[in-house]
Write a structure and sequence with these properties.
- By secondary structure, the chain is α/β, with parallel strands linked by helices.
- Helices cover about 60% and strands about 15% of the residues.
- The protein folds into 2 domains: about 190 residues, P-loop containing nucleotide triphosphate hydrolases (Rossmann fold), CATH 3.40.50.300; about 200 residues, Rossmann fold (3-Layer(aba) Sandwich), CATH 3.40.50.
- The strands form 2 sheets. Strands 2-3-1-4-5 form a 5-stranded parallel beta sheet, with helices on both faces. A 5-stranded parallel beta sheet has the order 7-8-6-9-10, with helices on both faces.
- The protein is elongated, with a radius of gyration of 26 Å.
Length: about 400
C-alpha cells in the first residue's frame, strides 16, 4: 500500500494538494478536520462533542480521531492506499497511526511536510476567511492554532525523521509546482521501499543455492542464519559456542541467537533495497519476530517462497551432499536427516499457513535443474513486484 501523511501548519495548502494526490494515486482521503466538520454539520454526538474544541483552535481528543479514521478506512477498501491530511498532529497520534496501519498489515510510506513561512500562512488564512465562512479563520483563532502547531505538532517531525521517512517540501509557489515536487518525492520514496523475501522449503530443497542467486539477480541482501551461525562457530565466538550443539543436532537454535544475527545483518546494510531470508522464520514465533525486526526498518515481508520437494527426494539430496565438500555435520546420519525433516513438518509448515493468510505466498516446484527452479522462483518475484507497483 501507498500510505502518505501530508503535514504542515494551518494554511500550508494541505487540502488543495491532497485532492490532487488522491486523484493521481487512487488513495483514500482522510482529513480529520473535514470529517469532523461534517459531523458538526450533521449535529451528530461526535460533532457536538468536537464543536467547541475546534472553534477554539484546540485539538480534538484522540479517542474521537481514532473512531473517525477507522470508519473511513473500512469504507474504502479498494484504493491503492491512504492519504492522511493533517494527521498525525501529535507524537501520540503518530503512535496511534502506526497501530492503525499495523492492523491493515501495512505501514506509512512517507510523511511529507509543506514548509511555509509564518507571515505567508497568516495572510493565506485571513484571505481564506473572506470566502470560506469558516469560524476558525479569525486572527485570534489563527494565532492559537499556530501556537498549537509549534507546541504539539512540530515534535512529530522528529518522530518521522528518526524513522527515515520525513520529507520537507517547499510549500511556496504555484499549486502545480508544489504538486510536482510532492509527486517526485512520493515516486522516489515508493521505489525505495524494501522488498523482503522469505525462502523456505524442506532440508535439501536447494534454498541456499537459490537464495544466493535470487539475491544477486534482484539486488537484495542474502541472509542465511545457518551460514552466518556456521561462521560464528568457526570463529569460536560466544554466539557460535551457544549455537554449536543445536546446529550439530540439526535443531532450531534459540530465538535470541537468531535475533542477534539478523539484527546485525540489517544494521550492516542500511542502504539495502531488501533482504532474502533463507530458512528463517522456521517457527510461528520466529515469523512474529521477523515482523517485529522488519517493522523497525518501516518494512515487512513482501513475498514468501516455498520450494516444494518430496521427502524421498530431500533424503536423497542430503545423502548425496554428505559425499561432497558441502557436507554439513548433520548430513551423514540418516537419524539426523529424519530429525530435521520431522522438525520441518512439525514447526515450519505452520509458518507457511501464516503467510498464506496474508496472500503473499508462492509455492514453487523444486524438481528439475537449478536453472529451471530458479526461473520459477524469479517469475514469482517479478509477479509480486508488478502487483506491488500497481497497488
Amino acid at each position: 500500500m501507498l500510505n502518505i501523511a501530508l503535514f504542515g501548519p494551518p494554511g500550508a495548502g494541505k487540502g488543495t494538494q491532497s485532492k490532487l494526490l488522491v486523484e493521481k494515486y487512487n488513495l483514500t482521503y482522510i482529513s480529520t478536520g473535514d470529517i469532523l466538520r461534517e459531523e458538526i454539520a450533521n449535529n451528530t454526538p461526535l460533532g457536538r462533542e468536537a464543536k467547541d474544541i475546534i472553534e477554539r483552535g484546540g485539538l480534538v481528543p484522540d479517542e474521537i480521531i481514532v473512531q473517525i479514521i477507522e470508519k473511513r478506512v473500512t469504507m474504502n477498501l479498494d484504493s491503492r492506499g491512504i492519504l492522511f491530511d493533517g494527521f498525525p498532529r501529535t507524537v501520540v497520534q503518530a503512535y496511534i497511526l502506526e497501530g492503525l496501519l499495523l492492523k491493515l498489515n501495512s505501514s506509512l510510506t512517507c510523511m511529507l511536510s509543506l514548509e511555509v513561512p509564518r507571515d505567508e500562512l497568516i495572510n493565506r488564512m485571513l484571505e481564506r476567511s473572506k470566502t470560506s465562512g469558516r469560524s476558525d479563520d479569525t486572527l485570534e483563532v489563527i494565532n492559537v492554532r499556530m501556537q498549537e502547531y509549534e507546541n504539539k505538532t512540530k515534535p512529530v517531525i522528529e518522530f518521522y525523521k528518526e524513522k527515515g521517512n520525513y520529507h520537507p517540501i517547499n510549500g511556496v509557489g504555484s499549486v502545480e509546482e508544489i504538486f510536482e515536487n510532492l509527486c517526485n518525492t512520493i515516486d522516489s520514496t515508493f521505489q525505495q521501499n524494501y522488498f523482503n523475501v522469505v525462502l523456505l522449503g524442506k532440508p535439501g530443497s536447494g534454498k541456499g543455492t537459490q537464495g544466493e542467486i535470487l539475491a544477486k539477480n534482484n539486488n537484495l541482501i542474502y541472509v542465511s542464519t545457518g551460514k552466518l551461525l556456521r561462521r560464528e562457530i568457526a570463529s569460536g565466538t560466544e554466539l557460535g559456542l551457544k549455537a554449536k550443539p543445536y546446529m550439530e543436532r540439526g535443531e532450531i537454535v534459540p530465538d535470541e541467537i537468531a535475533i542477534k544475527i539478523i539484527e546485525r545483518q540489517i544494521a550492516d546494510h542500511p542502504s539495502a533495497s531488501g533482504f532474502i531470508f533463507k530458512g528463517f522464520p522456521r517457527t510461528i514465533v520466529q515469523a512474529y519476530i521477523l515482523d517485529g525486526l522488519l517493522r523497525r526498518t518501516n518494512s515487512k515481508v513482501s513475498l514468501m517462497l516455498n520450494i516444494r520437494l518430496s521427502t524421498l527426494e530431500a533424503i536423497k539430496r542430503l545423502n548425496d551432499r554428505a559425499k561432497t565438500e558441502r557436507k554439513r555435520v548433520y548430513d551423514g546420519s540418516t537419524e539426523l536427516i529424519l530429525n530435521r525433516l520431522d522438525e520441518y513438518e512439525k514447526k515450519t509448515k505452520p509458518v507457511i499457513e501464516y503467510y498464506k493468510k496474508q496472500s503473499i505466498f508462492f509455492e514453487i516446484d523444486g524438481a528439475g535443474t537449478e536453472e529451471e527452479v530458479n526461473a520459477r522462483l524469479q517469475e514469482a518475484i517479478v509477479q509480486t513486484r508488478r502487483m506491488l507497483r500497481s497497488g
